[in-house]
Each structure stands twice: as C-alpha cells, then as structure tokens.
C-alpha cells in the first residue's frame, strides 16, 4: 500500500493532466453538441496547432504568448474549413461530414509527414523543469500553468455560451436547428463559428502542452482517443461533462499508473469507458434522446 501523501500527489498530478484532456475534449463535444457529428480531424488539428506553437518558439516566442495569435488563427482556419469545405462537401448529409473530416485528417497528417517527416521534436523553456512546492508534493510548473489556462478558457466559454447573443444562437442551433433558422439565425454561420471555437480550444491546448510534451505528425492521435473516452464519460455534447470527465479521467490514469505501473496507466481509462457504456450510455451529464 502507498502512503496517503503519495496517493494525494498522484491525484493532484492527475487533475493537472486531466485539465488538458478536458480542454481537448471540450472542443470535440462542442462540435458534436451543435453539428451532431464526430470530428475525425480533431487529432490532426491538434497536431497542426502544436507544430504552429513549435515554430513560433523557434522564432523566439514562448508558447504561452504564442497562444494570443495561434488561437485566433485557428479559429479563422476552423471557420473557413467548416464554412467552405466541410459544409459544401457534405451536401447536408451527416454521413458525408464524417467522411469529409476523416479525409481532412488524412490530408493534414500526410502533409505534416511530408513537410516535417516523422521526427519527434521538443522545446526547452526556462520554466520547463520548474516545480511548485506544496510541502508534501512537487507539481510541475508547465502542468500547473496548463491547469490555470484551462480554468480561464472554461470560464470564457461559459460566458460566451450563456451571456452573449452568439452563445444563445449556438445553444439554439444545438437544441433545434430548424426552429433556430425560422427565427432568423444563420445556421451555416453558427456551424462555422462553433467549429472555429473548437479549433481555437485545440490551439490553446497545443500551446500549453508543448512546454512539457513533444510533437510529431501523429501526436494528436493519442489525445483524441482519450478525448473520445472523456466525451462519452461526460455525456455527448455536454461541455460541463467534458470538463468534469477530463479531470476524472486524468485522476484515473494517474492512479492506474501508480498501482499498475506506468506502462498500464491508460488501462483504467478504457475500463472506465467500457463501464460507462454498459451502465450509463448517456454519460454523467448526457440526456436521453
């Protein structure tokens, strides 16, 4: 058995890791909640954002500062991709959207492979090995920063969705697309805005991940697998569910690594995934159809 201090330390580290999972998952569940499709290009967009943050660092800009222009750039990119590629190519059929996003994923990944090969890259920042001393546990500074940024993004998303006209339009389209269009909401525009917000969230996640992680053309795949689990756990389309589910999955992964070994750290994640599908398919905060 491990001492309480070690278990508490594992839980705290799991929460810090889970915050990044939550941020990646929020982008996935937001797109699902409004467009009602799974975005198969999710991992590839995250990878592209990490490469953008990497080359911004090569140009002398810290990843935490580069988020100020990478996130807006990826919002614009996400908006354009949904408005002028995914939307027209799908012809209003959700099955076509799935195929288009899968095709985008393959194209983005292979472009990155052709441009940067399969080499793994990392960066060195002054705070990369800094820690926060709580007396009984040392927390890595990059993950503490990532946790703080995730909290800020969550607060901004909540304000956007509940306090702005755009947020009200997003919730209206998510609830009833036809009714929203009948009262004058531009559904096509809202679809593109939502996709853009999802891409911006991925850009923020990429910028906070890079100081403590690496980047290669396939790095997003690992995170998107966990994100699918988080979305199912929290409830498909539930933003609060994705936030809480991400934190829970981070803690489960950390405790699994502690008790079963680092190589089996993600075993607990997929056990949770199976149990949720068996016991509560709608997730913690999902609504029944």
UniProtKB/TrEMBL annotation:
Spans traversing the lipid bilayer: 6-30, 37-57, 63-85, 97-116, 136-161, 190-214, 220-237, 267-287
Superkingdom of the source species: Bacteria
InterPro entries: ABC_transp_permease (IPR001851), BCAA_transport_permease (IPR052157)
Subcellular locations according to the entry: Cell membrane
Keyword terms of this UniProt record: Amino-acid transport, Cell membrane, Membrane, Transmembrane, Transmembrane helix, Transport
Entry GO CC: plasma membrane
Record membrane topology: Multi-pass membrane protein
CDD domains assigned: TM_PBP1_LivH_like
Pfam family, any one: BPD_transp_2
Gene Ontology annotations of biological process type: amino acid transport
GO MF annotations in UniProt: transmembrane transporter activity
Family under the similarity heading: Belongs to the binding-protein-dependent transport system permease family. LivHM subfamily.
Protein name, per record: Branched-chain amino acid ABC transporter permease
Originating species: Alsobacter metallidurans
């Amino acid at each position: 058995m491990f001492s309480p201090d070690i278990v508490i330390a594992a839980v705290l580290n799991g929460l810090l890791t889970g915050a990044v999972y939550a941020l990646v998952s929020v982008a996935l569940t937001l797109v699902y909640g409004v467009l009602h499709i799974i975005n198969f290009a999710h991992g590839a967009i995250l990878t592209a954002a990490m490469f953008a943050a990497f080359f911004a660092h090569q140009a002398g800009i810290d990843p935490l500062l580069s988020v100020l222009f990478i996130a807006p750039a990826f919002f614009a990119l996400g908006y354009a991709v949904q408005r002028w590629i995914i939307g027209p190519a799908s012809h209003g059929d959700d099955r076509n959207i799935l195929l288009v996003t899968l095709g985008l994923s393959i194209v983005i990944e292979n472009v990155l492979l052709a441009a940067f090969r399969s080499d793994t890259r990392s960066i060195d920042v002054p705070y990369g090995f800094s820690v926060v001393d709580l007396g009984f546990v040392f927390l890595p500074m990059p993950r503490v920063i990532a946790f703080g940024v995730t909290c800020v993004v969550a607060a901004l998303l909540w304000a956007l969705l509940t306090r702005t006209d755009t947020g009200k339009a997003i919730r209206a389209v998510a609830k009833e697309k036809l009714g929203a269009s009948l009262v004058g909401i531009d559904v096509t525009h809202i679809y593109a805005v939502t996709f853009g917000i999802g891409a911006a969230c991925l850009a923020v996640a990429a910028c906070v991940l890079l100081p403590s992680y690496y980047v290669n053309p396939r790095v997003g795949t690992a995170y998107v697998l966990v994100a699918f689990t988080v979305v199912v756990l929290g409830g498909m389309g539930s933003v609060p569910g994705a936030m809480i589910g991400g934190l829970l999955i981070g803690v489960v992964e950390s405790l699994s690594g502690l008790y079963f070994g680092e190589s089996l750290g993600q075993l607990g994640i997929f056990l949770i995934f199976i149990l949720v599908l068996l016991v509560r398919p709608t997730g913690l905060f999902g609504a029944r159809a």
